[in-house]
Amino acid sequence: MNQHTGFARIGTTPEQEARSAPAIRQSLKEIVQRYTAKRDGGAVTRETESGVIEIIEEYQGIEAEARAFADATARVKNASAIGTSWGGDIFLRGHDPEISAERMKAALLRSAWRHVYEGLPVKDCASAKDRKRFDLFFENPPELTLAAIAEHFGAFLLDQRHHILKGLAECFCDLDPAYKSHSKVAIGVQGLPKRIIVNHVDRYLSSWGAERVKDTLNALRVYRGQARMEYGEWSSMMDEARRHGEADFSGGIIRSFKNGNAHLIFDKQGLLDINRALAEFYGEVLPDAPNATEAKRPSTEVARDLQFYPTPRRVTEEVLQRLQLSGGETILEPSCGTGDMMDELADWHNQEDRWKRRTPLFVTGIEYDAGRAEQARAKGHHVMTANFLQVAPEARFDVVVMNPPFYGTHYKKHLDHAQKFLKKGGRLVCVLPATAYYDHGNTIGEWRDLPVGSFAESGTNVPTGYCVWWKPKD
Fold first, then answer.
1. d(Cα 48, Cα 26) in Å, to the nearest integer?
2. Structurally, how many domains does the chain consist of?
3. 213-216: which pairs have CB atoms within 8 A and are 24 or more residues apart?
4. Which CB contacts under 8 angstroms, 24+ apart, belong to 381-384?
5. Tell me: the pLDDT tens digits for 304-351?
6. How far apart are the C-alpha atoms of 276 and 186, rounded to whole Å?
7. Are residues 168 and 125 in the same domain?
8. Among residues 367, 176, 348, 193, which one has the least CA distance to residue 275?
9. Boundaries of each DUF4942 domain copy (predicted)?
10. Separation of alpha carbons 419 and 442, rounded Å
C-alpha cells in the first residue's frame, strides 16, 4: 500500500486487491472531498469505526485564500510606511506580488489528478503511449469526481496485466511489422525476428529512436515484473553502447552504429518472453496460423463461429473519416451486426459542419444473424437478414464499409464479394485482422494499421487494420 494514499500497488494478489478495494474507494473519496473543500471551502470528514463522522481538515477555499493574500500584502505595505510617505520598494522585483484565484484553481485541479495518478497503479502498468497521453491529459483535465476517475483510470485498475501486455505489443509492433502477425506469434519464436533495427538513435536521449528503445526495454522489464529503468541507468547503458559499440540489457544486447542506428538483439530467453507475452495478449482467437486446421466448406457457407466482434466507436470514427463523405451517398454495410457503425452513419448529417448543412446518407445493412438484425432494425436501420455471400450483387452503392468475420481467411470471400456492389468510382473501407495484409496478402488498395488493442472492448486483442480501395471509373 502507498503510505500516503492507501492505494493498492501493482503486484498484489487478487485476494489482497479485494481486501484493499474499500481502502482505495475511501481514499479516492477522501481526495475528491479534499479537492472540493480546498477549492470551494469546507471540511474533510471521515467516519470512525463506531460510525461517528469526524472533521479531520477544514479549508477556507481558494477565493477566500486569494483575498487573504491580497489583505496580507496591503498590511505588509502599511507596516513599512508612515502616512503616505513612500520609503521604497519592499517586494522583490519591484512590484506588488499578485496571485490569480483562477490559476490557483487550475493548479489545484492538475495537482489532484496527478496525485490520484501517482497513487493508483496506473503508470506502473500503462503503456508508453498511454503515459504520454496522460501527460497531455493533465495539462487540462476535467473536473475531479469519482465518476471521472473511474472513466479515465478504471480500465487500468480492472485489468493491469492487459495493459502491461498491450504496452509490450505496442512497442514491438511499432518496431517491426512481423509482430503484427498473431499467427507468427502463435507458432513460436521462429516466427519472430531476433534483431530489430531502430533508426535515429543519436546522441540525444530524447530522440525518436532513443525513446523507442527505452519504451521497448521498459515494456519487457514491466512484463517480467521488474522496475522501469531510472534515467541514470538508461543514460549509462546508452553511453556504454556509443563508447564501446554495444551494451547489455535484460534480454539481450544493444549495438550502436555511427549512422545513428541501433540494433536490439534479443537472447533466447528474451525472445521467448516476448513471444509468450504477445501470444498471451493476442490469444488463440483466430485459427489461421499455418498449423491450424480448418475443414473445407463451400464458398458461400457460413462459418460455425463468425467471430462477431462489434466495431468499437473509436474504430468507427477513424473509418468514417476515411470514407470522405459529402452527403447523400448510398452506403452498404455487410455483416452489420447490431448496427453500431450504422448508428454513427445515421447521425453523420447531424454533426457540426461550419460550411453547410449536411445531406443525410442512405444506409443499408445485411446481417446473417436474425437476432442481431432485429436489434439493428429496432434502432431504425434498414437491414436485410441474409448471408451476404449469397446476396446477388448489384453495382449501385457509392460506398461499402465493412467489418467482416475474422475467422481464418473467410474475410477474403466477403471482401471479394463486396467489390461487386460498388458503382464505378465508389470506395470501400474494410476492417480486417492484420494478418490479412502482413501474412496473407489478401487486402486491396491502401492499408492502414489500427492501434494495438483496438478491438479489446469487443473481446479480441488481435492486431487489426483496414484497407481503403476506390473502384476504377472505367
1. 12
2. 3
3. 213/238, 213/254, 213/262, 213/264, 215/128, 215/167, 215/171, 216/171, 216/172, 216/175, 216/264
4. 381/336, 381/339, 381/342, 381/346, 383/336, 383/339, 383/342
5. 444 678 889 999 999 988 988 888 999 999 999 999 999 998 888 776
6. 9
7. no
8. 193
9. 107-284
10. 13
Give the distance from CA 178 to its chain's centroid: 21
Say what the pLDDT of residue 293 is: 40
Considering the domain architecture, whether residues 123 and 245 belong to the same structural domain is answered as no
Cβ distance 360 to 380 under 8 Å? no
Kindly report each contact of residues 322-327 with a partner whose C-beta sits within 8 Å and lies 24 or more positions away, as own/partner: 322/429, 322/448, 322/466, 322/468, 323/399, 323/401, 323/427, 323/429, 324/427, 325/361, 325/399, 326/359, 327/358, 327/359, 327/360, 327/361
Domain membership flag for residue 249:
yes
- Which tens digit of pLDDT belongs to each residue from 394-425? 999 999 999 998 777 888 999 999 999 999 99
Q: What is the pTM of this model?
A: 0.75
445: left (phi over 0), alpha (psi -120 to 50) or beta: left
Whether residue 317 is found in the same domain as residue 438: yes
Q: At 339, which CATH number?
A: 3.40.50.150
Same domain, 135 and 231: no
Note whether 9 and 42 are same-domain residues. yes
Closest CA to 421 of 382, 390, 387, 392: 392
Question: Does 305 fall in a domain?
Answer: no
Which of 31-45, 84-98, 146-160, 384-398 has the least mean pLDDT?
84-98
Cell of 456: 479489446
Alpha carbon dihedral 420, 423, 429, 434, in 10-degree steps, equals 30
On whether both 333 and 464 belong to a single domain, the answer is yes
Residue 392's domain comprises: 313-470
Residue 366 lies inside a defined structural domain of this protein: yes
Do 29 and 138 lie in one domain? The reply is yes
Q: 273: which 3 cell numbers?
A: 518472453
Same domain, 353 and 462: yes
Mark which of 158, 177, 210 sits at the end of a domain: 158
